[in-house]
Amino acid sequence: MIRTRAAVLLVLASLAFAWAPPAARAQDPDLIGDLLKAVPTPEDDEEEEADGGDLDLPEVVETPSVRSGPTPVPGQRVLVDDHSRTPEGPLNAAERTYEARLRAGYAAAQGRQGELDGRWLVRSQVGPVYAFQFIDSGAGTLDGAWSDPRRPGALTGSGYLGAVSRTGGRLAISLEAPPRRGTVRLQLRPEAPGQWVGTLTEDGVEVSVRMQRE
To answer: In angstroms, rounded to a whole number, what is the distance separating the alpha carbons of residues 199 and 202?
Structure first.
């Protein structure tokens, strides 16, 4: 490319010198030398290419690709990335009957549970002292677990109930709750629906408490 430019300039210089008047030739005897100075050197050409020259490159604009999910087709299986459809269609008559039987069985099981089944909170005059989760099958047997709200996150702040008995409408609960000294005992009687009142004995001290369903 450089040699071609130089050849063209030499031809132009020769023509200019041939057609120039004698006076102009005498005044500018080195016309060809001046034209040769304008010929770009290899170093200049490399710098021009490195800088990108005068080329006007079009600006490249990246457009995000849009990935469309599959078009829902009736009767076609649902794919993982198809968020517009559900894997199951409407229930038929047999499925609706089966679901109704499951709901009825669950409701019947809930109805057979005793009145103490669930979560209860025991409070004294200073605040919550114990939380109980009772399992009351409705057949007279009670079981469950306890936690101490006064020691949240402690390794010894929860455990299973030692014994739970209900006799003559009264409720007796005992548990081991280290670092308490000895067995913690509660004696409760019903006061109103969802409420029991009585005493709590721990570390040899007896205080009045109230137990309510949470």
So the answer is: 10
Q: What is the pLDDT of residues 184-211, one digit of tens each?
A: 999 999 999 889 999 999 999 999 999 9
Question: β-pairing, 170-175 with 163-167?
Answer: antiparallel
Quick one: pLDDT at residue 199? 97
Collapsing DSSP to helix, strand or coil, 139 comes out as: coil
Phi, psi of 56 (to 5 degrees): -95, 95
For 130-136, which contacts have Cβ atoms below 8 Å and span 24 or more sequence positions? 130/184, 130/186, 130/200, 131/214, 132/161, 132/173, 132/211, 134/164
Parallel/antiparallel/unpaired status of strands 158-160 and 118-124: unpaired
Cα–Cα distance list, 132 to 64, 142, 174 (Å): 57, 12, 12
Cis bond before residue 179 (omega within 30° of 0): yes
Q: How many CB atoms lie within 10 A of CB 167?
A: 7
Question: Using the 8-state DSSP alphabet, how is residue 71 labeled?
Answer: P
| Global model pTM greater than 0.70 | no
CATH topology of domain 118-213: Lipocalin (2.40.128)
**Interatomic CA distance for residues 154 and 148, integer angstroms:** 9
Q: Which two tokens stand for residue 15?
A: 């023509």
Q: How many residues does the chain have?
A: 214
Q: Are 119 and 135 in contact (CB under 8 A)?
A: no
